[in-house]
Amino acid sequence: MFYTFDCLEKNIFKRMKKQLRKDVEKVKAGGPGNAERMVLLFLTHPRASIPKELHEVFAYGAEVSRFYREYGGPAEVLKKARQELGKFWRNVSARRVTTGVYAPGAYQGIEVRVPYWLAEV
After folding, report:
1. Measured between alpha carbons, how far is 77 from 70 in angstroms, rounded to an integer?
2. Within-domain flag for 111
3. Is position 54 within any domain?
4. Of 4, 25, 86, 94, which one has the greatest count of Cβ atoms within 10 A?
């Protein structure tokens, strides 16, 4: 579980990809030969910048706001995260990738979405 902005922060995304690669390899190696092998990734994506007064109660609120300012808002951060993850899934030779968005609601008045990627590896 990461934030969408993590895909844009070089060091965090590098660690994220390393962990995902390990998970992919572990899944590929396990189970019967004909079993479907799937990896599921969730990202947290607030749909607005986090007001300064909520930075203490909203995990990574300051970072969310900083990345949204730097990259042109939540829609642009999500778009770039999807692009980066698309490259990653191709790199690990995922056979099929299904994406979607879960909408759990709001926290502290900020609407939150959880984009996901289900990859057959």
Report:
1. 9
2. yes
3. no
4. 4
Counting as low any pLDDT under 50, the low residues of the chain are none
Question: If we measure between CA atoms, which residue out of 97, 101, 76 comes closest to residue 88?
Answer: 97
Q: What is the pLDDT of residue 95?
A: 86
Contacts of 44 (CB under 8 A, 6+ apart): 1, 2, 3, 4, 112, 114
How far is it, in rounded angstroms, from Cα 24 to Cα 13? 16
DSSP-derived secondary structure for 75-88: HHHHHHHHHHHHHH
Q: What is the pLDDT of residue 111?
A: 97
Number of domains in the chain: 1
> CA 54, 14, 37, 94 torsion: positive or negative?
positive
Q: Crossing angle, helix 74-91 and helix 61-71, to 10 degrees?
A: 90
For 108, which DSSP code? T
Structural contact between residues 47 and 111, judged by C-beta atoms closer than 8 angstroms: yes
Would you say residue 94 lies in a domain?
A: yes
For 93, the domain range is 2-48+78-120
